[in-house]
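ABC transporter permease
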Amino acid sequence: MSTASVVRQRFPRAVARGERLAAAPARGLDSVGHVAWFVVTAVGSMGHAVRFYRKEVLRLIAEIGMGTGAMAVIGGTVAIVGFVTLSGGSLIAIQGFSSLGNIGVEAFTGFFAALVNVRIAAPVVSGVALAATVGAGATAELGAMRISEEIDALEVMGIKSISYLVSTRLLAGFVVIIPLYAMAIIMSFLSAQVVTTFFYGQSTGTYEHYFRTFLRPDDVAWSFVQAVLIAVIVMINHCYYGFYANGGPVGVGEAVGRAMRASLISIVLVVLFASLALYGTNANFNLTV
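Structure:
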């Protein structure tokens, strides 16, 4: 009997743990390749989805924008994103006015709202709201279809499951995010102005002067680019976890949790790297203006 066999018999758990650790790099590369294949297939099938599944794309656009069932009663994703960004803009105004007031420059609250809302708050808050509503719903829906073998049935019927289930959702998310984010950023601007001028009594002229002075069109355009990237990443991430869910209803719940964790990390990373790339060396504003 060899030494390896003796060690395996005497310490089976330690050997199994060591084998798992040794195989971790290979499993990691396999997972990366699997995700990459899924992303390439889903994105590459968008043209096929537009050609053959237009009705499904339109249905998903309506579902993502206004929701279904109880979600439609309160306005769906539009109402949720609007309320969340409204609250975020109000918090920025409250913190900005109070903090700047400590050094006697509360007049700069308009500048603070224009800077933070566009560059940080609105993309992050909108991304989190999108992941918590549309993303989690997509993971649960696709996961339920997977464990009930509906996806396998689609394949048997000759329907390209990734094109029909994933590419259509990517197209719908890409279409909806533009007006959705426009509404979100308007709500964040409006809430910050109302809190500063109505509740704190700052004159509207002072607020609008600094707000318009430091609100750069380039920042708004890049903010929309960030929102689109976040929407695409969130939809791909949630569709991936839902499409490959397993383990019954418990497995679907676990897939939703893993997808949400990955989405929250991805949203922050997109904003972080975008800020480093765009404003890491030059903040593009001058307080002496």
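Residues 69-74 have pLDDT under 50 and may be disordered.
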